[in-house]
Amino acid sequence: MGFMARGGSSAADVAGARLAREATASLAGVLAGLGVSQSELARAMSVSPGRVSQIMSGDANLTVRSLAAAAEAIGARVEITFHAPPRDAAVQPRDGAAPVYGSGQAPACR
């Protein structure tokens, strides 16, 4: 089941699906560059080939821990970076409070 297959289409669901696709595409690129197959990754991670297939599909169970385990198995590094919104972009709070405007000054967190 893919990330979006759960029926959600909120902004967070869409962003989560995009992030999962980006992460698995990046992992696939590293695997191809190293000449490592999904079966070999499964052995290195001590998981079933089916679990690697789930990870590579961007499955709803894709977690940071799963990505870290895959990276560890192939000697790679995972990097997650948050970027502040542009100075003039309004961030709409969920509780209906007034919008918050990004300062554009927040450093990227790693």
Task: Supply the key terms.
elongated, 110 residues, 434 Repressor (Amino-terminal Domain), 2 strands, 4% strand, mainly alpha
What does this protein look like?
This protein is mainly alpha-helical and 110 residues long. The chain has 2 domains: 3-74, 434 Repressor (Amino-terminal Domain) (Orthogonal Bundle), CATH 1.10.260; 82-110, no CATH class. Helix content is 46%, strand content 4%. The protein contains 4 helices and 2 strands, in the order ααααββ. It has a two-stranded antiparallel ribbon with strand order 1-2. This is HTH cro/C1-type domain-containing protein. Residues 34-82 form the HTH cro/C1-type domain.
Average pLDDT score: 82
Please trace the helix and strand order, writing H or E for each element. Answer: HHHHEE
Instruction: Supply the CATH architecture of the largest domain.
Output: Orthogonal Bundle
CATH H-level superfamily of the largest domain: lambda repressor-like DNA-binding domains
Poorly predicted regions = 1-5
Secondary structure tally, helices: 4
Helix content: 40-55%
| Biggest sheet: strand arrangement | 1-2
Helix-strand category: mainly alpha
Largest sheet: 2 strands, antiparallel
Can you count the beta strands? Answer: 2
Overall, the morphology is elongated
Q: Proportion of β residues?
A: under 5%
Radius of gyration: 17 Å
State the end-to-end distance.
Answer: 30 Å
- CATH class of the largest domain, anyone? Mainly Alpha
Q: How many structural domains can be distinguished in the coordinates?
A: 2
Organism: Actinacidiphila reveromycinica
Region (Disordered): 87-110
Protein name: HTH cro/C1-type domain-containing protein
InterPro entries: Cro/C1-type_HTH, Lambda_DNA-bd_dom_sf
